[in-house]
Amino acid sequence: MWLLFGVALALVYILITNQSRKKKLHKKKVETKPQGKQPIVPVRWTPDLSAEGEQEVEMARLSVSKEAYLPEEPTVLKDAAAEDADTEGTEGTANVEPGAPKESVSELPSAQASLALDEGVQPNADTTDDFEAELDAPAANRPDVRPEEVLGSDKIHSLWEAGRALEKLSGEAPRSFMTFDFGRRKYPQALSILTDEESARAWVDALQERLDGELLAFIGTTRWLGEEDEQGVEVVVAKGETPFDSLRLAQTDAANYDLSTEDIITKLKELDRRYGIRLYAVQTDSVGFELLRQPTNLQAFAEELYAFCPDLVDQGVGSIEHLIDYLKDHRDLHLWWD
Length: 338
Fold this sequence. Notes:
Blueprint: H1 2-32, H2 52-62, H3 64-67, E1 76-77, H4 80-87, E2 94-95, H5 110-113, H6 125-134, H7 147-151, H8 159-170, E3 178-180, E4 185-187, E5 190-195, H9 197-210, E6 215-219, E7 233-239, H10 245-250, H11 261-275, E8 277-282, E9 286-291, H12 298-308, H13 311-317, H14 320-329, E10 332-336
Antiparallel strand pairs: 1-2, 3-4, 5-7, 6-7, 8-9, 9-10
């Protein structure tokens, strides 16, 4: 009897213990259950650079965009005689060193002089052949050919391409510099050619429509006071961020009226904001531009121009009234300070 009673107590104890354990496990699960959506932690991928070969491939891929802006090594240019000498086993090259004077570029062959100004452009045999073929096109100064026909519709992206365009227009190799101070000083990081006045304006208009990037085209020196016996009108292509940089290249000022280069640029920028202007001629003491919108008050505009450039009236049209009559039918203005 007592034995059966002891077995019954043991069974009851086991049942109570199991129920208590189940309650504890259920409570633990409820406490650890996540409430709502948990944030997803992104895992950042990093390239596996364990193997040397894979490292080189990966770094090359990651630096493609950076390499596009890195300057390339100076190009070694060879003339025809040097190339012939190389085929015979002799060496003869014309090198453009990084620290060499810019004037040395003018001593290079004509088709390669403009190439040296853009070190990022690497010429090859195919490019040279294409370039020579394009030079056979008729020059624009022939009466039966227009510059639009000679240049085509392709954009010009570099000084090297600008040199090709200038040579196609003039039929001669461009000079590897532009002049300022009435032709007495040279700026080497530009290209220029000499032509007549009528052709110069047509060439500049055509070039400006095709220039892309930070390139400027304008009429440069027309009055020559240097020792060299220069004649003609200079057409210039140079690097610049805005058209107003052409005044900085030419160092245009009005010293007799206490106007610096920046003073003139400030006034031209103001006119550009109000009417829109297109610069086409920039010299030491003068600028030429086209008004894109005609002023509504010609009287006030003529008086403003006279205050800015008195020689436009005093040594030009003769009176404010004549200037107003001119502005009624013309958009081109040529300002100079004697």
